[in-house]
Model the fold of this input.
Amino acid sequence: MNRDHPLALDVSSRLAACVLAGVLSIAVQPWSAAAAGIQAAPGARILVVPFENTQHDPRLYWLSEASAILLTDELNARGVRAITRNERVRAFEQLHLPLSASLSRATIIKIGLIVGASDVVVGSYTVDAGRIRLDAHSIRIEVGRLEPDVNEAAPLAELFAVFDKVARRFASEAPATAAREPRPPLDAFENYVKGLVAENPAAQATFLETAIKQSPGYDRAELALWDVRSDQGDHAAALLVARSVPAGSPRAERARFLSGLSLLELKRYDEAFDVFKSMADAPSRSAPGKPFAAALNNLGVVQIRRGSQTGQSGSALFFLTKAAEADPGDADYLFNLGYAYTVEHNHQGAVYWLREALRRNPADADAHYVLAAALQAAGSPVEAGREKELARQLSSRYEELERRAAADPLPVPKGLERVRTDPDPAAGLRPEQTLVNSAQREQRELATFHLDRGRRLYEREEDREAMIELRRAVYLSPYEAQAHL
Done:
């Protein structure tokens, strides 16, 4: 959802209010070792939330994030599909929630609902005399049930082993189904986690570089360092980090994708094109048999940026169409396709694809703006004016876009294309897409409320108040015919 949209301004308070009743209904079941297991339905996913540091010892803060990473890894190795850290971070960012803050149970349950989790695992830890004690339990979201606690204790030096035991309890003793990666030395893992949660990029880089020195070839730390260098705008250093991941690593595909992003930012378009093209043509490791939609999308972006719309290498429209076909539920791919059609002065095609993008994400201010430009060029000034007004209401970027458009010979400003920074090609598993769907549902429900209230006020001939409610309904659902009527 657009950050400037009013529905996104107070997410955390709405989260708690939305599920207060659900939290009150949570019941603890009689405890047994077997009852602690997660028995998720096929296709369900588990969200592991960082454990709480009950001692509030700043020296131990890194164990909160470490707990979520280790338990997620162990559950995935046992065939229990747990939401990865990258997905969890994206979901928290979309909700504007801090990663390190303690969250209420209501908020945690709502996050689980939004990311499509069947269960949420929460817990706490204490460290005393070199031993760590873990207390964890899962919440079955669908029925609002708090499962019995899982308790384990071990020397802190056996951190990996104790989370293996916890995962076995949650996974109902399911055997490991995936090859488990070799664990780095504990001190390298500690510095890796500290690098993830440090508050400034300089500290993040220092911790991560230390972890890599302590455990050469630690590809997880190398990819985390790529994130830091990219955020700092040092794309040359980021490229070197991505290329240092060996081809035999489980994260080689991701590293290669990230190297393409660095090349794109460095404007080395031919090299970036070659990287994404080779990935689009090859079978994906993470989703065998499926087209690599993220690579196809980025190929289209490369072609837009280097101005190569036609030629033997393929046009932007060709690659973006393939991306949209591979993942038709992704609003960003549809936006890029509509944007490329607008740049090509194919206004009818632009109108079609931008409306498809808005059907999936009605709060996309840039899509409303580009659609307005396409409608204006296609000879529909009234509709164009409505879309411009929606863009103005949804985002403060509207004035900036108008200034850029006035100085640009194209019908829309350059630079609006959207790069896919996550190489995960698996459609339907992204938390942000579930988040958009949840937000759309809330918008529709709120629009229906204002429409019904406006209709009642109109019937009572309270026209002034009715207009206020109907305008709110139109704002939330721009294509609601009854509100316009």
User: Anything to note?
Assistant: Residues 195 and 208 are 5 Å apart (CA to CA).
